[in-house]
Design goal:
The chain has three helices and eight strands, in the order E-E-H-H-E-E-E-E-E-E-H. By secondary structure, the protein is an alpha+beta fold.
C-alpha cells in the first residue's frame, strides 16, 4: 500500500492509494460499480452505506451515501459520482461531489465537512490483473488544498479499502464451468 500527498499541477495536492487485493479484477470492478457490493463496504470503519444507486456509464451519475454510527450522531453524507471515462475492468474516472439525498450538489461546508475539501474531487481508479489472480488497484483523488486535507481523505479511503479487502476475502472467486 502506498499513499502520497503530492503537489498537483494547479497548486493543489493529490492523494493516491495503491492496494493489492486477493481477488480477480472482475470482482474488484464489481465492488466499485454494483450497488449491492458498495453498500457492503463504502465508508470508513463503523459507517454503513444505505444508498448506492449506480448508473455506471460515461455520462452517467451514481448516488452513494455513508451513514455514521449512532455514537457519532448517525449523520449521513451523500455524494454523486459523475463518470467521464470507463474502460471496463481497467480504468474508472469520475467526479465526486457532495450532494443532498436527492443528488443535488451542495457546498461541503454546509454539512460540516472541514475546509479545504473542494466541491468537486476528480477520481481515477485503475485495475490491473496480477499473475497470481489478484488485482493491483490504485485510487487517485485530485485537487485538495493542503497536505492535511490529503491525509484526512487518505485515512477515510484507507478504511474503506480495508473493508473492501475483507469483503473480497469472503467472496469466492468465480469458477470456470
Amino acid at each position: 500500500m502506498t499513499s502520497v500527498g503530492t503537489p498537483g499541477t494547479t497548486g493543489t495536492f493529490d492523494m493516491a492509494l495503491t492496494r493489492t487485493f486477493d481477488a480477480p479484477v472482475s470482482e474488484v470492478w464489481k465492488a466499485w460499480t454494483e450497488g449491492d457490493y458498495i453498500r457492503e463496504w463504502w465508508g470508513p470503519s463503523g459507517f454503513t452505506a444505505p444508498v448506492a444507486e449506480m448508473d455506471v456509464r460515461e455520462g452517467g451519475r451514481s448516488l452513494v451515501a455513508m451513514r455514521a454510527p449512532e455514537e457519532m450522531g448517525g449523520f449521513e453524507h451523500f455524494n454523486t459520482w459523475s463518470y467521464q471515462q470507463i474502460v471496463p475492468e481497467v480504468r474508472l474516472e469520475f467526479m465526486s461531489r457532495f450532494a443532498d439525498r436527492l443528488g443535488n450538489a451542495i457546498d461541503p461546508a454546509s454539512v460540516g465537512i472541514p475546509p479545504g475539501i473542494p466541491k468537486e474531487v476528480p477520481h481515477v481508479l485503475t485495475f490491473a490483473s496480477r499473475s497470481d489472480g489478484g488485482t493491483d488497484f490504485t485510487v487517485t483523488e485530485y485537487g485538495y488544498t493542503s497536505p492535511e486535507v490529503v491525509e484526512l481523505s487518505r485515512a477515510g479511503m484507507d478504511q474503506c479499502l480495508d473493508k473492501l479487502a475483507a469483503l473480497l476475502a469472503q467472496t469466492p472467486p468465480p469458477t470456470d464451468i
